Amino acid sequence: MYPSVLAVFPRDHYLLEITFSNGESGILDMKPYLDFGIFNRLKDCQSFEKVSVAFDTIEWESGADLDPEFVYEKCQKNWSNTILKVL
After folding, report:
1. What is the average pLDDT across 40-62?
2. Quick one: CA torsion of 10, 21, 61, 35, rounded to 10 degrees?
């Protein structure tokens, strides 16, 4: 089972800063997915910034959403935060 998304913050260049329920955090680069289907709508920066947490994952007002497993797997983990919590 994958951890839930607790928080998401849009950043410049179609990046999302994500915090998970297991204490990990990371960055999800959405640029590779913006040419596919409903994600094409997110090329508009104002639409991209309207991201929120819903049902343990992320979604946009446009109706686009991502599978929580995908979000966790594709996130570039910020291991320094995790290591500091262990120490």
Report:
1. 95
2. 60
**Which carries the bigger pLDDT value, residue 2 or residue 61?**
61
% helix / strand / coil in the chain, to the nearest 5? 35, 35, 30
Q: Where are the beta strands (DSSP E) in 12-83?
A: 15-20, 25-29, 51-54, 57-60, 76-77
Residue spans of beta strands (DSSP E) within the chain: 5-11, 15-20, 25-29, 51-54, 57-60, 76-77
**Length of the chain in residues, anyone?**
87
pTM assigned to the model: 0.85
Q: What is the CA radius of gyration of the chain?
A: 13
Closest alpha carbon to 5 in 53, 37, 47, 43: 53
